[in-house]
Amino acid sequence: MAAVASGGQGGPSGRVAKLRKLAPGLLVCLVIAIASVWLRNASGIAALNPVVIALLVGLAWRSAKGRQPVLDAGLSFSIRPLLRFAIVILGLQVTATEVLALGPGALALAVVVVGVTVPAAIWLGRLFGVQPGLAALLGMGTGICGASAIVATNQVVRAKDEDVTYALAVITLCGTAGLVLLPLLAEPLGMSALAYGLWAGASLHEVVQAVGAAAAGGPEAAQSGTVMKLARVMLLAPAIMALGWWVARGAASAGGGTAKVQVPWFAVWFLVMVGVVSTGLVPGIAIEASRFLVPLLMAASVAALGLSTDLKALRARGLAPLALGIALSLLIAAIALVGVKMIGV
Question: Are 141 and 164 in contact (CB under 8 A)?
Fold first, then answer.
């Protein structure tokens, strides 16, 4: 009777108890995220990714204070439901019209760099002695959109927190190196502004890295690089679905059963959001709100990841994943360069 009177576990008192359990960890993650976004905005340095800042703060907190069980529920919520919501609203930043304007050759290049890089990561991972889950994270981060792809991919591969943290560090390092090096190579390679923009957009990991590198080639390069990068972001959902099928198939083979694929609904809703915003009916204020919320929620999710990560376990991964990340970065840059030359722009 008492359970009925209080509404049971799903009633008001049950929801309040759940919120109280989530609040400490969730609040810490949001504070770190807000501070990280503020630091990026206050510094005026666009390449200062709040996701990376939040990761470093989370790692430092965990290293200094150790595991704090009171935060666990909020950290788990931040790593999964909050992150999935961020991925869904990320879809409001990509329109099919912009992507299709690239033309069939450039669109094919976007598909090829993703379609080759992700399987190559898993194959090369075996040669480098890197666990399949970590290799998949590195492949998706390199092939699609850096940190966003890594944390989204982990929703289906379910790698260890230390693997996700390592992948984020490697992608940040390799992408930053590309941001510095690609503009220096445009002139020696004899690339037009359009070609260089497409190369940067097809090669670099984070959106801000690709856009920053492309902008170094002038307005035309910035435009083509940005749209090419958006084309790769648009492939996030189908790539995650394909990877989810691969993971389920592997699990079924190991257990001698049949593959049972769990649909990653957050990826489906990402595509729905792309379709909705492509109609032109979404108010501009909603799109701007997504541009504010996505980095904030991503930073909160990754802060939770840092707070959950044991640095000793991270060091145990060795240098093999870093070597794999560098190899994948060189591979995608080479594929993109050949593709741009074949398009003939």
Answer: no
CA distance 10 to 86: 25
Distance CA 141, CA 151 (A): 9
How far apart (Å, rounded) are the C-alpha atoms in residues 334 and 339? 9
How many other CB atoms are there within 10 angstroms of residue 83's CB atom? 24
Between helices 83-90 and 265-278, what is the axis angle to 10°? 30
Encoded tokens for 147: 């940190």
- CA–CA separation, 148 and 196 (whole Å): 24
Helix residue ranges per DSSP H, 159-283: 161-185, 193-203, 207-215, 219-234, 236-255, 265-278
CA 228 – CA 155 distance, rounded (Å): 25
**CA angle (71 as vertex; 292, 50 as ends), nearest 5:** 25
Query: What is the 8-class DSSP label of residue 71?
Result: G
Query: Whole-prediction pTM value?
Result: 0.74
Q: What is the pLDDT of residues 231-289, one digit of tens each?
A: 898 888 888 888 888 877 766 555 544 445 455 677 778 888 888 998 999 999 999 99
Q: What is the C-alpha separation between 19 and 77, in angstroms, rounded?
A: 11
Residue closest to 186 by CA, chosen among 212, 220, 214, 228? 214
